Amino acid sequence: xxxxxxxxxxxxxxxxxxxxxxxxxxxxxxxxxxxxxxxxxxxxxxxxxxxxxxxxxxxxxxxxxxxxxxxxxxxxxxxxxxxxxxxxxxxxxxxxxxxxxxxxxxxxxxxxxxxxxxxxxxxxxxxxxxxxxxxxxxxxxxxxxxxxxxxxxxxxxxxxxxxxxxxxxxxxxxxxxxxxxxxxxxxxxxxxxxxxxxxxxxxxxxxxxxxxxxxxxxxxxxxxxxxxxxxxxxxxxxxxxxxxxxxxxxxxxxxxxxxxxxxxxxxxxxxxxxxxxxxxxxxxxxxxxxxxxxxxxxxxxxxxxxxxxxxxxxxxxxxxxxxxxxxxxxxxxxxxxxxxxxxxxxxxxxxxxxxxxxxxxxxxxxxxxxxxxxxxxxxxxxxxxxxxxxxxxxxxxxxxxxxxxxxxxxxxxxxxxxxxxxxxxxxxxxxxxxxxxxxxxxxxxxxxxxxxxxxxxxxxxxxxxxxxxxxxxxxxxxxxxxxx
Length: 484
Hints:
By secondary structure, the protein is an alpha/beta fold. It has 14 helices and 17 strands.
């Protein structure tokens, strides 16, 4: 792969902004969590009438990341209080939730059959830049976001967080259409014959995305929740919880192996989660220590966004963009805890390497299928002209990645990140390269073996696996002084 660098041969990807304040809020929230290369607001589908652009809105926001496609539908409808709560709830539900779900469900058949007719603009001049996964590999997730409902929920239940209640026994659309039969401010399966829709009000979504603020962490939560609800439906059991945050609290507190999950007794037929579990969790010292420990990981996010800005502002249509996006996707698919470790490794290298010196490190993956990372700090050299230094560093990084294959024959994806030495990381420039070593040949083996012998690359590099705990022990509090 060619390194991501500034160029002048491409064009800027013209991204739409949300039309309403709530759409802009959703866009900012998702771009912060999923990063801007994979989040697109206000997409259009080309109806193709008379051979002219005839854009009709596809969805409010679409996130495409590998095989996962997240469809967000956003409605900002006021809850009108007429004094008849059944009528008021059904009216609000139809406008805010039912209509949004129908819009979201219509996305899947279109993108599976007409992936080449998705555009960033209504005139259908700016094609959607990402390659959608093959239909047989596509994993769809539907999220409906509502607004301004929390005060109504709190008033109706005489307290609580304001989150919509989830009741898995609600499975038929008619339960939301008949005021005499409805259960106000409770949602379940909007239609059990269709894919599950996550219904969140804005405060619940923000709590989830602030806690699970990488695409991998968020999607793993959605998958675990969807599998849980499918299992409850299949076995005829019932699940009830007072707000999305309380379900999230159980997920965060439960580990299945080395991942979060759910662990409910299979013999319990009707399960009601404790109310207030989320509030009890976020005040715990270990949860606060987790937030503090995560701060270093946003250095990794900043590196991704630096590269992303270059890609978005200098869009190279075709294979170049495909390779660039794939390289960045490796960085972005790292969860928050893994980002914490990777960022710490890079920052430790920067802090311990004097200006003008080199430092190299290879980070070995924790699980099969994960990439090997090559970190390079390349010092300036008196024998390399200033204008030649960027290309010199890029060539060194590419060589290190290929020689990593010699050291680790099982390596398939090798991601290299290079920067310089110094004290102000905000001013650093970066290079990124990706080596796909699946088709490694004997000629490659011979060539890079000679290169390693000639230049001694990776003879002095450090290697190793990284480890940490998601919830570190909180720092002990200093005793308060006795002023009496």
